[in-house]
Design a protein that fits this description.
The protein has 354 residues and is of the alpha+beta class. It folds into 3 domains: 68 residues, Molybdopterin biosynthesis moea protein, domain 2 (Alpha-Beta Complex), CATH 3.90.105; 228 residues, Hypothetical protein af1432; 49 residues, no CATH class. The strands form 3 sheets. It has a 5-stranded antiparallel β-sheet. A hairpin with a 4-residue loop joins β5 and β6. α13 runs antiparallel to α14. It is elongated and about 70 Å long.
Length: 354
Amino acid sequence: MRLHISDLKEGDILLKDTFNGYGLHVLSKSTVLTHKDIAKLFQHQVDYVDIEDRRTTEQPDHRTLENSVHPKWLPNVRPDYENAVKGFQDLFLKATAGGVVNQDEVAAAFSPLLKNFQMERDVVSMLLLLNTADDYTYQHSVQVGMLSYYLASWLGYTELEALEISKAGYLHDIGKSRISSSILDKPAKLTEQEFEEVKKHTLYGHEIIQQSFHDQSEFLSVSALQHHERIDGSGYPYGLHGDEIHPVAKIIAVVDIYSAMISERVYKKKRDLFYVLKELYKMSFNELDARTTHTFIKHMIPNFIGKKAVLESGEVGTIIMTHPTEFFRPLIQIGEQFIDLTVDRDYEIKAIIF
């Protein structure tokens, strides 16, 4: 059957290869359409496609169900993710006891995971499926390492540079090994004195990495030192401004905030992912580097394609396509209706459902 792309549904199966108006191949025959595929057809301005006759049953196609519930990468990534978390815990405890970390142990813990997220680009789904409420300090460091790799790649760093930057992200909080667990794990707001002690983790981390790596990779220690510095000078430990902050520290600052806000901790509930990106966008005008932050948002937003959006009106729709500059105003499908939030300005997204 031949349909206009606005009538397509997730689970429809293409009868033939699909090409755009310039003859470029868009999707292959037998593709089981997802919301991302439908968005791709919109982006290539394909009007009509031929699909297999729809099944009379309401059950979703098993191939679609399998891909959405059990992504093909999950069995490979989860063990490496858990090993990286355990590996960081071991590094953390050894740094507590001896004041240094072993370079080979860093590589052994984190490198296997690096290979997996070099291939997987749906960062939002990856973190949601892997993240748990346990071991926040250790999971946070692994997540910052992962996100640092992606953001460095998106900013144009080479593959080797991105891999090194991911290690800087992995080790950015190693200085917390010198902070008392009674403060780190406190199930309540920190006192002013306790917070001043926590802020010293940047200094401790700089020292630990310098003693461990002997400046073989200088930005590892600089990133640990500066990832809480802010462009407007409001950060710590030195209140640096603008270009006084190392570019890699600017990368880690963005993903550090993102990971912290989406994670559930003893005393803090995780925030909606869409809300967190909006907060980062606000911070990009004073606290965070604008180019770094906007690059992160621009590449994270397309991961919401296919996810459910709850509007302020209470309506629930599916994100079909995102906008390259108006990050938070995508094209949404509610039933048979398509709503472009860049045009219909009365609509606002309240939350994203996964």
